[in-house]
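Teaching assistant's notes for section 4

Start the section by putting this record on the projector. Ask students to predict, before seeing the second block, whether Glycosyltransferase family 4 protein will look compact or extended. Collect guesses on the board.
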Amino acid sequence: MNVVFINTSDSSGGAAIACSRLQKALEKHSSIKGDILVQEKKTENPAVTTIANTSLKKQFVWARFIAERLLFLPYERSKEIRFLFNRGIVGVDISKHPLVQNADIIHLHWVNFGFLSTGSIKKLLALGKPVVWTFHDMWPFTGGCHHSGECENYQIECGNCKFLKNPGGNDISRKDWFSKNSAYQPNHFTAVGCSQWLSKRARNSSLLNGFKIESIPNPIDITVFSPISKREARQQLNLPTDKHLILFAAMRVNALMKGFSYFQEALIQLKNQHPELSENIELLVFGQAEEEVLNQLPFKTHKLGHLSDVKQIVLSYNAASVFVTPSLEENLPNTIMESFACGTPAVGFNIGGIPEMIYHQQNGYLSEYKSVESLATGIQWVLENNTDGEISKKAREKVLGSYAENIVASQYETLYKSLLKNK
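Reveal the predicted structure now:
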């Protein structure tokens, strides 16, 4: 069985990581041959093929990205939400690409930023091959936003969009909703939510009425992301061995929805209310971050920068006493999965798919949404209650039972075979 996985990037963002991990998991634990087709390739992964294989085509990649942003510019409410809404107007036709033509199954992942337009997706569906689309956010079933928050207009036909400068009953979110509706009919795809939360939202969407919708998590290699001695990890990273190390990680640390301000305020509260504990606290931060942002944190901070070496990432998770993810919108974060796999408990808000991962006061702490006080309490609770390593043990067990490669690969293989059987 040949499967072509389609994602905008092979390296940037959670969807790229999840897509690559799924291809590897299926290769290791099934007879499925998988290729990854991307807009622009940045890794040395031999399974990845790029459509931008010349310098001219690479320039077109950038041009499409800019064009997609410019087409939204007249409508955007503010620059803070510039990348939270994609119209899906600009893209390329990959329906005739050899990997697509030779595939038994077409498996879409995250395809925005000028890679696939709504029209491009329509052409893929028209091929008549079984199409699986793993959702990493809500974009496939909204009028353009990646996460709607409390807005439920996607359950009807969108419109009155909160991301727009001039929302209205017939704004671009509704127009783009109808474009997707036209593209998805009559050739349905099978939708897969990485979390049960996202699958439930997909089922409530008017765009996907009558579609088959499954829930299958992302996989992780439990032999790579695994526990090692905390002392050893810290020594290799030249970190103190006698402190509580609190970890924050994000591709862009100060991205609006990553909740860095909540992290900062929770730390300030922790320091003020528990001076006896805070004397032994230092911070780890990895990801793209401006120096002045990190300098505002109330504890000594070890800046690890952008990490691309998996060994360094594993060492960082193992070095940490607790991982804190105050994201305001999430599906099924790879970061929590990675932290758990390394035996490091996590603290996060009760939002999206996070409650499916963090079991309150078992393998971590589930804080009240947008509550600085609850976030601070969660950090304190983990630091004070994991002295015997029992919370760490349960964190690792969650990954072994739900996200191990063989478990997820089996679920997808079963899905693929059922689609081919019913073709």
